[in-house]
Amino acid sequence: MPDAHIVTVGTSPFGRTDLTGRDLFSVAITEAFAGLPDPAAVVDALYVGNQSEAYEHQIMYGSLLAEWAGLRHVPAERVEGCAAAGALALRHAVEDVRSGRHDAVLACGVEKMTAGGTTGATDALSAAFDRATEQRSGVTAPSQYALLAQRYLHETDATEADLAAIAVKNHANAAANPRAMFRSETTVETVLESAYIAPPLKLFDCAPVTDGAAVALVAAEHVVDALGVADTVRVAGAAAGANNLAVADRNLTVIEGAAAVTTEAYAQAGIAAADVDIAEVHDAFTVCEALLAEAAGFAPRGRGYESALAPAERSAGWTDVALSTSGGLKARGHPVGATGIAQAVEAFEQLTGTAHPDRQVAGAETALLVNEGGVADAVTAAHVLTVA
Amino acid sequence: MSEYTGVPRPTAPAELTSDSPYTLPGFFAALAEGELLAAVCADCDTRLIPPRTACYGCGGRDLTTAAEPHTGTVVSYTEVRTAPPAFADQVPYTVAVVELDSGAKLTGRLTAAYDEVAIDMSVRLVVRAPTAAERELGLSYETEWPVHTFEPV
């Protein structure tokens, strides 16, 4: 099986912008292909993670971005899986290269979320919930995750202040990430004093509505050699899995889908959770980082909320992994379909030693990415990346 | 018991009509008559709401419909303060995951103020007609579908 490598990456700025989705992609691919041949000379196929046509009234994002990249008559398609769309696109690219079907595949993600304001985003995201039972009950993304958070606080020793500390950590990380939406630090007091959106979750527990695009070129080793790129990252594990759509039909505090795909990704990579140096987990809401730290095997059950603590201060059974070094969805920003690729961009920078010095994890060699869609593990994709 | 309960999984495609409790129109027709239907798996006892033709618990298809109990307890809850357009005029409102006495779980609105709700609180299923706003913003086939909610016991 050929090894899949991430050869180059690029993103747009993350935030509110007057650029459209395709423009944001142009920004991202311009960064990624600086100093490389034209995309048309390299790319054999393209996948685009994109949550919703509700924002721009635009489907056919595969054709559109292929065209915008100067590609013609190549396989190109949109991948849909709500907030997991980006990592699902990345996994398709990885599997195409591993299988030998293609030599170089562009994994993309794009979302233009601010177009319809908060109401538009609330409505577009609500389409991710089971229409027959959940949508008819008036649930929203924050309220769905609040159901998990409320139960987690009930079952564990975690407090709202513990969740706030996760937001504070991720804001501090984002302050050292030039790509991030919020490059400002915050405090536990500020988080706790922010308005409840869906209790126990407050405004500062929630990732923002974000415009953005990200790309990662996935290629076989001979392409890396031909391009003469020195620093790449190897995709050592790639896994995805679906779970029941309705939240009530899943375990609220044991994210079984994330446990399954991380276990599979670790097995492919021949590693254990303790070997992971950095992890981008899907902190769309602060509680997610706690839940996913447990599901990924970094923290003992009920102790994932200690993710903001320094390794020496965490409970026994925790690994020394650094979580959400990019600032996470919370502070880097969460352009839904692009988030899975943005996670890979952070891992690429960390593992090639090119992250901003204020957030670079010294000696980082192994990264885990967990990207989930449709409330927790309705669908989850996990990737293990290692230094090449 | 009704025409909708005790129904085995249809094995012929032609049986899966809007009269069948294994389709959403059939499920909501039963709900309008006050029956919350599940398909119960003979192999692993998972109770599937609404009924469908395969069990997510074990993959089996030996299923029979049953009416679920209307009483249960709150597993988790929250309050929606910013709602989708169809519910914008109703905020704030409480939403809960409820475990019915059968063990099946279901999300629904809970007609109690957030501050008056607690985990493990006893609740009861109520079936109501959709509001005018819900009808207006519903899809063409949904306008007459009833809405399930929960109320404190």
Q: What would you say this structure looks like, in words?
A:
- The complex is a heterodimer of chains A (388) and B (153).
- Chain A is built from 12 helices and 12 strands.
- Chain A has 388 residues and is α/β, with parallel strands linked by helices.
- Chain A is globular and about 55 Å long.
- Chain B has 2 domains: 55 residues, no CATH class; 82 residues, OB fold (Dihydrolipoamide Acetyltransferase, E2P) (Beta Barrel), CATH 2.40.50.
- Chain B starts with 23 loop residues before the first helix and ends with a strand.
- Chain B is mostly beta strands.
- The relative contact order of chain B is 0.16.
- The longest helix of chain B is centred in the first third of the chain and has 9 residues.
- Chains A and B meet through helix 4, helix 5 and strand 5 of A and strand 4, strand 5, strand 6 and strand 8 of B.
Topology record:
The complex is a heterodimer of chains A (388) and B (153).
Chain A: E1 4-11, H1 21-32, E2 45-49, H2 61-68, E3 76-79, H3 85-98, E4 104-112, H4 117-126, H5 141-155, H6 160-175, H7 188-193, E5 196-198, E6 201-202, E7 211-219, H8 221-227, E8 233-242, H9 256-269, E9 278-280, H10 286-295, E10 322-323, H11 328-331, H12 339-351, E11 366-373, E12 379-387
Parallel strand pairs in A: 2-3, 2-4, 9-10, 9-11
Antiparallel strand pairs in A: 1-7, 1-8, 4-7, 5-6, 8-12, 11-12
Helix pairs in contact in A: 3-12, 6-10
Chain B: H1 24-32, E1 37-41, E2 47-48, E3 63-67, E4 71-80, E5 93-100, E6 105-110, E7 122-128, H2 132-137, E8 147-152
Parallel strand pairs in B: 6-8
Antiparallel strand pairs in B: 1-2, 1-3, 4-5, 4-7, 5-6, 7-8
